[in-house]
Amino acid sequence: MENNVGKKKRQRLNKNKKKSWRKVDISEVEEFLEDQRLQERTGGLVAEKPDDQLFFVEKKVTDVPKALTRKTSRKVKAQMKLSEYESSQQIEQGKIKTPKRARQVLEKLASGKKSLTERQAEKQRKTAKKERQERLRVRRNLPRATYDLWADSTKMDENEDIHYLVVTKKRRVNVPSHLRDKPSVLNAVEVPHPGASYNPTYEDHQELLMKAHNVEKKKQKQEKRLYNALDAQFPKAGQAPTQESILAEMSAGLFGEDEEETNVEQKGQEGDDVLRLSNNPRVRREDKKDEKQRRKEKEKKEQEKMLQKEKEERIHSSTLFRVRSIKAEILRQEKQLLLKAEKRRKLQEEKALKTKKLGKLKYDNPDLEIKLSDELVGSLRELKPEGHLLQDRYKSLQKRNIVEPRVKAKKYRRYKRKLYEKKTHKIVQT
């Protein structure tokens, strides 16, 4: 019991209830918000400050003892070696003994002459230094575009790696040639017929009426064709066959002709048996050919082949003398090819003006907006509008192959609605 005195009992609360939200411990959240407010009061948030405001670089340099490196010159090394040797106090008869190698190096440096190896090494060092500076210069320079970034097409260097440019997405995707082609050559807004004006001339108005008349006539012809093919093939309710007429028609010829049918069936079976026994014609002794007849047939075939070969050679040799007729034939063929090409070009132009089938539905031209003769008023103020502007624009999009033809979707209910009665809303009937 003594150990549990200082401990706080854990509360088990349902956090999905609004009344228990006030009892949740939010001390950590409040500490975080208080710290954030303190930072904002004292110069801003630390997490949003740049590095140069949080850290500084110490520029004071401490003294470092000089040490011999590989880059230390040979003259300095020789002088240091000589000074070390002199400090060893190896003196004989008032003279300092200098090491032979150090003396040679000093004499050589005093003369200023360089050996072949030293000259080559110096040349290599200069070349390496120049190459290193060139690499650093190239690395520091930023790449500059040698082409117009906003142009339609960019010329790329042949030495550039295409795979690298594709992977890094620095190379433009090849644009297809038909990207900027319009789906149709038709104008977005077609010019209406002059007869559709609010005050048209008599000829233009009659021409528009004739055009609408032809459209309606074509529709009636199509409806009549469908009626003749479907509805007209079936009788009406008054002319429909009854059960008795169907039974009489189906039982016609079944009684009184049994014997004839049995005779016909027997004859047919006998004929079938003969055909089954011998399918090929009989071979007679008189029809068999002897050797003389076969030899004559062979000679006749060979003679026909020779005559055919001579005829082909004669035709081939005669072609040399019919150059004019050959030229005329070539000209005639070229003329036919030109006519076919012109016909094909016209078909392509007509096809460009037509509407393509983009979906399962076919595009139907809207009805012509016309006014009858008694509806013409001659004044724009009294004119009643025809059609609908939004429908006209939508039909234009369909005609220009931008939107596929559509119909309004019908809502079908798959199952019957079920009615449920809740206990809380139950109707008590008394």
Automatic annotation (TrEMBL):
Keywords: Nucleus, Ribosome biogenesis. Pfam families: Nop53. Its main location: nucleus. This is Ribosome biogenesis protein NOP53. It comes from Sinanodonta woodiana (Chinese pond mussel). PANTHER family: GLIOMA SUPPRESSOR CANDIDATE REGION GENE 2, RIBOSOME BIOGENESIS PROTEIN NOP53. GO terms for cellular component: nucleolus; nucleoplasm. It comes from the Eukaryota. Belongs to the NOP53 family. Residues 115-134, 283-311 have a biased composition (Basic and acidic residues). Transmembrane segments: none annotated. Residues 1-22, 71-134, 257-311 are annotated as: Disordered.
